[in-house]
């Protein structure tokens, strides 16, 4: 009888919503997502990681991990009051209207908001009245303002509960989980608070057309049947997860019949065992994809779920890789009619559109926090922290247009374009790291272009130096300049530039090498221009000397130079052209 009552409840829940009831909103229609006018839509989204919820790795603080640890570390070098003020300023500076306007201009049509529950309600153990929820205006006000910016740009805002009460998994930083406190799955109070929070959010935003949907629990990773299955990838039933997802859906539908509900399987969104079929007619399945190949086989199980259960699928989180991987992943998704959402808009590092600059004195803070150095003075720490807050602002970020180019233009075009417009008169210098923007084998060829850390037996990293730009070419900082590093046999780089006049030019390459084995071939405008240019031994990887090819003919106007490394093992910093 219990089984039949449960099934009857699911049927009744499914009846709460119909596709027709969601007219005017982003919604599921069979295997597709459609917009307010019923047209198929591909979501091209960006996640606001690091805004409401910090993870240590985003700021080169991996040993600290969770946000509560970072906050405690800031309080340790200043005070609790100043740490609280720091976080208020953080929320004000990190994501602003200019960020959303910029993302719309770059081509994104949706935003995923990773929410920390503690901005919306008190932790269950801190409630003055047990079982009663205290609502905090801060999180709702931030969401309201973000929604206003999205509406102005006609972008969908998808609410994502990234840090659920108690934390939804064994990966502690992604949910700011404290391991000594009951998790979401170990506490009925945490589960009830999660349900109540979603009901509150749905009640507030039920009539908002530009709320794209409710991504109800980010990346569950928990062993329900086997506690040793810490990632939740081997679970076969996932009964507690399904029960909570159904309870959340029911609470949402009590107040909001319109908005799309997005669910994520166990195992970081990818294990759907026991969760299907869908219990609501306006539902989509999210999967997450990192560090594997961009082949149809890599996503086949999700294509099968879409086909079998007649529901849309959405790549709700991906990224953290090289530009070449980005282009391949987006092309794969869009060929298969799958929307996508990148992770993330900004952090310290190059694998995102915006890079947060590391403030002066920051490494000293990091060294102290990780037990490698002395404690800075309070005034010194405060100066560093204030600079960090200023560096959060978009106008103070480093803009990586190579990332945006890879995510939009390169997904549609094989053509390469100049990274920096360079005009050569009587002479000029091209930095080696300013090779053209474009796909692998169009703008460059490198033997190691991406990270496949979740693919057994594949040990590659992309840009080994992780500086300057996010293409697969290896770049490192050498003194005050960036140089191409770890050049291997058969790799090449392409440079587009303009010459003011026809004529003969001498081309020299600034190289550094411990041996004299390196050899370079030049292709100019598709024709062989020079072969077997010898790279001399310079006495070390930071000792630079020129190697030259004289009397190379340039034509007036556009020239395309391809520098082919027949034999690698050296570094390249500059290409100098001098009219003969």
TrEMBL record:
GO terms for cellular component: cell surface; extracellular region. This is Carbohydrate binding module (Family 6). It holds the Pfam family Cellulase. Residues 450-578 form the CBM6 domain. Transmembrane segments: none annotated. It comes from the Bacteria. It comes from Siphonobacter aquaeclarae. The lineage of its organism: Bacteria, Pseudomonadati, Bacteroidota, Cytophagia, Cytophagales. GO terms for molecular function: beta-glucosidase activity; carbohydrate binding. PROSITE patterns: CBM6 (PS51175). Keywords: Carbohydrate metabolism, Cellulose degradation, Glycosidase, Hydrolase, Polysaccharide degradation, Signal. Residues 1-22 form the signal peptide. GO terms for biological process: cellulose catabolic process. Belongs to the glycosyl hydrolase 5 (cellulase A) family.
């Amino acid at each position: 009888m219990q089984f039949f009552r449960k099934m009857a409840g699911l049927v009744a829940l499914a009846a709460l919503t119909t596709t027709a009831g969601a007219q005017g909103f982003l919604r599921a229609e069979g295997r597709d997502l459609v917009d307010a006018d019923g047209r198929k839509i591909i979501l091209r989204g960006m996640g606001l990681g690091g805004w409401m919820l910090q993870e240590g790795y985003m700021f080169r603080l991996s040993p600290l991990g969770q946000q509560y640890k970072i906050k405690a570390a800031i309080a340790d070098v200043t005070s609790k009051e100043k740490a609280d003020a720091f976080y208020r300023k953080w929320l004000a500076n990190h994501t602003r209207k200019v960020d959303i306007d910029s993302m719309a201009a770059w081509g994104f049509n949706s935003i995923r908001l990773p929410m920390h529950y503690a901005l919306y309600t008190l932790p269950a153990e801190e409630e003055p009245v047990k079982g009663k929820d205290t609502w905090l205006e801060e999180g709702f006000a931030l969401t309201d303002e973000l929604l206003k910016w999205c509406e102005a740009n006609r972008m969908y805002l998808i609410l994502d509960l990234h840090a659920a009460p108690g934390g939804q998994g064994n990966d502690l930083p992604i949910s700011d989980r404290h391991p000594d406190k009951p998790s979401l799955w170990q506490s009925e109070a945490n589960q009830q608070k999660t349900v109540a929070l979603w009901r509150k959010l749905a009640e507030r935003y039920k009539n908002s057309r530009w709320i794209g949907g409710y991504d109800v629990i980010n990346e569950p990773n928990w062993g329900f049947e086997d506690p040793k299955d810490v990632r939740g990838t081997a679970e076969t039933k996932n009964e507690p997860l399904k029960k909570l997802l159904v309870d959340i859906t029911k609470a949402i539908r009590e107040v909001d019949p319109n908005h799309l509900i997005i669910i994520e399987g166990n195992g970081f969104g990818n294990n759907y065992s026991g969760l299907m079929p869908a219990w609501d007619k306006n539902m989509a399945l999210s999967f997450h994809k990192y560090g594997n190949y961009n082949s149809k086989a890599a996503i086949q199980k999700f294509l099968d779920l879409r086909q079998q259960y007649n529901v849309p699928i959405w790549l709700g989180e991906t990224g953290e890789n090289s530009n070449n991987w980005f282009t391949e992943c987006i092309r794969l998704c869009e060929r298969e009619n799958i929307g996508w959402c990148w992770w993330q808009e900004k952090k310290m590092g190059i694998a995102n559109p915006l890079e947060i600059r590391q403030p002066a004195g920051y490494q000293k803070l990091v060294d102290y926090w990780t037990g490698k150095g002395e404690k800075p003075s309070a005034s010194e720490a405060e100066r560093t922290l204030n600079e960090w807050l200023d560096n959060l602002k978009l106008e103070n970020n480093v803009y990586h247009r190579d990332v945006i180019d890879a995510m939009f233009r390169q997904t549609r075009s094989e053509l390469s374009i100049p990274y920096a417009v360079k005009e050569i008169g009587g002479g000029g210098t091209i930095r080696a790291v300013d090779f053209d923007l474009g796909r692998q084998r169009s703008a460059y060829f490198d033997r190691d272009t991406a990270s496949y850390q979740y693919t057994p037996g594949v040990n590659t990293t992309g840009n080994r130096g992780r500086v300057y730009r996010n293409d697969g070419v290896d770049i490192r900082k050498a003194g005050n300049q960036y140089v191409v590093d770890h050049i291997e046999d058969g790799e090449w780089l392409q440079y587009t530039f303009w010459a003011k006049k026809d004529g003969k030019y001498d081309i020299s390459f600034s190289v550094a090498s411990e041996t004299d084995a390196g050899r370079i071939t030049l292709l100019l405008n598709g024709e062989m221009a020079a072969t077997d240019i010898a790279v001399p031994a310079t006495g070390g990887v930071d000792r630079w000397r020129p190697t030259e090819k004289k009397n190379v003919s340039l034509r007036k106007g556009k020239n395309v130079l391809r520098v082919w490394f027949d034999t690698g093992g050296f570094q390249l910093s500059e290409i100098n052209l001098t009219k003969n």
